[in-house]
Amino acid sequence: xxxxxxxxxxxxxxxxxxxxxxxxxxxxxxxxxxxxxxxxxxxxxxxxxxxxxxxxxxxxxxxxxxxxxxxxxxxxxxxxxxxxxxxxxxxxxxxxxxxxxxxxxxxxxxxxxxxxxxxxxxxxxxxxxxxxxxxxxxxxxxxxxxxxxxxxxxxxxxxxxxxxxxxxxxxxxxxxxxxxxxxxxxxxxxxxxxxxxxxxxxxxxxxxxxxxxxxxxxxxxxxxxxxxxxxxxxxxxxxxxxxxxxxxxxxxxxxxxxxxxxxxxxxxxxxxxxxxxxxxxxxxxxxxxxxxxxxxxxxxxxxxxxxxxxxxxxxxxxxxxxxxxxxxxxxxxxxxxxxxxxxxxxxxxxxxxxxxxxxxxxxxxxxxxxxxxxxxxxxxxxxxxxxxxxxxxxxxxxxxxxxxxxxxxxxxxxxxxxxxxxxxxxxxxxxxxxxxxxxxxxxxxxxxxxxxxxxxxxxxxxxxxxxxxxxxxxxxxxxxxxxxxxxxxxxxxxxxxxxxxxxxxxxxxxxxxxxxxxxxxxxxxxxxxxxxxxxxxxxxxxxxxxxxxxxxxxxxxxxxxxxxxxxxxxxxxxxxxxxxxxxxxxxxxxxxxxxxxxxxxxxxxxxxxxxxxxxxxxxxxxxxxxxxxxxxxxxxxxxxxxxxxxxxxxxxxxxxxxxxxxxxxxxxxxxxxxxxxxx
Length: 679
Prior knowledge:
alpha+beta, Catalase HpII,  Chain A, domain 1, Rossmann fold, 17 helices, metal ion binding, Catalase_core, Class_I_gatase-like
């Protein structure tokens, strides 16, 4: 390199120095250099009042965050979707004037996008993470978006902290690792120093964070909303989606292996189920609280880190959504769909939940960046089914060709059209809540209880679920390098459960928490998946068959199919196997292309004297056994189960009688997991 080139190179490095930033030890400022006195709370009209548009610091912080990624979603990038329809069971006119929640004769089209939160579009789907559950209702009064998750609470109480949460959760910026995982220092450092996250972390470390399927996953609106009826009376409401098949999960070892074997596991499951006609179904449930009862609970109903225990506020099931059509084009539909919690219809309004208030600003801002401008509502997947008319014009990707010379309100040249619609004729009018308060960056004292519902969650878990929580914390904190962060988390969760915190403290060589255990003894059985619906329908069974097949096997598979169980045959080679009665079995997988973790149960038949075949079959069985899955064996498979010392274990079914075997195996499959098994 010449001396001149060295000079130029050094000069370039000097010029870049002004763009390098080391924030460690510095004071917090806005992008304009203004020193910030408070970065925890958005500006509100009173401690429990709405967030004010005057809050320039919040807007700058959120606007910058919303535009950080192009074009991939900042969060919820990895998603998959399907079309469906919603049918109402009974009119809800007592609570809301929303037409689609009043007229039982109408079917409302829907579009649902499921997603992971933390990972990029290319990440695996069975990672430990919250899941998005966003539903667009195409109603005759406009689009209504119920933008929720599979967990009913969130990490933070105020939207101004959302950029901080996601920055901490995402891969660390100095090395862009780890992908789609919370098991690293910055996330747990955030948790330890933002203790309002305790309840959500309990859910994230539980089995809820590794669902078996989108079809077996609850959905929650998370926030408190309002329903308003024709008389103007309001009720507070939380929205739920209850899967008809029940709420079921993977086990952690299984989830990790699926990530490598089939990173598309969840989307494949949804796609194939719809293609097979096994349409996913979810019942819409409402928890409703009268306005006058707002302060009658031991938690603040506007706090997004709190749930309403179903035993205290029952869930009223009001309708059912069926997903019955796959998308035609993933980009045009799944990627371009634009959800927004502010897309409401008459009869649905907002509360002063400060996290919800911030989302009402953030989503439009995000769509402007991600979809290239203000006309994202004109994309086919986002267009309302009802007509829309206004004076908005131009912009990138404008599809509508507006006629006429008038594009303003009020006007005389077009007889003042388009004109507003009075409330009595269906025009949207905000609920007239009285608001009186000083401008203040603070939160209500009632938001400061961070641990009681985290303990409620712990108390509600079955013993296997508690063990899974202990294992999850031990795994996650075992990946953290900072001993200080590890100890901070131990001390924090000592406020939730000494048993839990002591267990993972010992696993990571930290000092167990000191002090007394939580005084909270309340539990909510509805939170345990042990109490969910148990059904064999749509369960997938891997059937291991050799070169010779008894005619009885085909009869067994047909009987299982009649109960909604799907059998897929596995062997050493693809092709067909002819049974003794002349019927044929299609071999869909080989030992190289399949693995036990992609099935809900294993049924081993045998029919081969090849030692390698038997070795592969036994490996399938042992792995499924370790994951607490149902295992069936007939014919030669019975002997293999006996040799493996599995016969008689919970969930292991074998026998010669076809009818007894089918009944017992179906019942075992219905249970989902056999936790009392000795593994």
